[in-house]
Amino acid sequence: MSEFSWTQLARIVSTREQDPPNPTHDEVVRFFTELRTPLLRYLYTLGLPLSEGEDVAQETFLALHRHLLEGKPRDNLHGWVFRVARNLALKRLQRAATTGGEPDFHDLTDPAPNPEQQAVRTQQQRAIQSVIAALPDLDRQCLYLRAEGLRYRDIAQALDISLGSVAQALSRALDKLARAAQR
What we know:
Blueprint (H helix, E strand, L loop, with lengths): L2 H16 L4 H23 L4 H20 L7 H23 L15 H20 L2 H11 L4 H8 L3 H20 L1
């Protein structure tokens, strides 16, 4: 690093040390660190390309920061984050549909296995994807959110449905996946 860079770094550190502690900022940073990757995966399952998912995630965490600064409720923020991200993603997808844009889906196969393993894996993925694609939208959304580690209560809040509806949707989805795996 040049002397100029070290001077800039020293100025930034000294300024940061003089800043009063900001618990809201620290809480948002903690949520960002914890939820960014699961949130991006979830947004991808909704049909957003990674670049748009990054934008939606950024908008979501900015909304979280505003939410906390305004002193709004802090209970179940995990579910709140996924719900806001879902709503923002659906708005983007609707905009893309009305302007003629298509969601960008990629084949997520792993290139490392040998050809035989690759063929078996591809066949299994297609079978699972076809079962998931055939699920009702609610069942599919519940399954994706559960796969991201959200609890039933968080899923219910994110999708604005009852806990019983979450349990039923997940039960149906898992039963169908189990039957497909036995074939």
